[in-house]
Amino acid sequence: MIDALMNFDFMRYSLISGVLIGLIAPLIGAFIVVRRLSLIADALSHVTLGGISFGMFVVTVFPILTFINPMWFGILFAIIGALLIENLRTSYSNYQEIAIPIIMSAGIALSAIFISLADGFNQEIVGLLFGSISAVTKSDLTTIIIIVVIVLIFILSLYKEMFILSFDEEYSKVIGIPKWIQFLFIIIVAMVISASMRVVGILLVSALITLPVAISMRITKGFKQLIILSVIIGEFSVVGGLVLAFYMNISPGGVIVVLLVLILAITMIYQKFKVSSMKGDVKNENRRSN
């Protein structure tokens, strides 16, 4: 692994990207899960695939545009999809969750169309679906770094507003938190998903956003603790997944998600055992007192 990092640029790009994604995906995921918008990551990931496949189609039709990274089309489509979701949530005030399957369906449809027009499935598309160690280019890494900086500035600058918005959207309106913060947040989510897809894969990116938070919620009590532990778990799973995927010569996305699922299962089993043990201690104590 060390030799590969020393000799191959793509390995260094993948590892650096993985560390950065392991930071921002669970970080933004904490706010998404608390707002009960976990499925939004799935919807936007499919829209992102539609944008990337559109970019590939454009390059196929206009070879002169090969200098344009299809990832930028993915980010553009994801942002548009995020804004449409927010708009639909406003339109269907009593059935806000319907916005997510609408946009997800549109994203899947666009992906199917543009993948077919761009000469069908190829190795790059498969890498985007499930993640790939060799898929991260220097251009992708630069884009990911820019997105990480934007995400950190957003969270650090508007943490208080986002905290209130996440836990009580109605109260945030009462105290006058600007509507643009909510729209900006949804755009940030779209950018994080676009940044994560190269390493984790579009079909699995939502797991990296939500699973570390789901694990941390079973352990922590405060929101800041939730964020910190989620990031630690995210970093462990991404770096561990990349290392295992390298030695096993498989897509890293699946390994990363399996690690997260195992951590969640171990956490739940431990807690169940702990509760059973505590109940047993209480029963024994009652018997002694009787």
TrEMBL record:
Keywords: Membrane, Transmembrane, Transmembrane helix, Transport. Pfam families: ABC-3. It comes from the Bacteria. SUPFAM superfamilies: ABC transporter involved in vitamin B12 uptake, BtuC (SSF81345). The keyword Plastid does not apply. It is found in: Cell membrane; Membrane. The chain crosses the membrane at residues 12-34, 46-65, 71-88, 100-121, 141-159, 171-193, 199-219, 226-247, 253-270. Gene3D superfamilies: ABC transporter involved in vitamin B12 uptake, BtuC. Belongs to the ABC-3 integral membrane protein family. This is Metal ABC transporter permease.
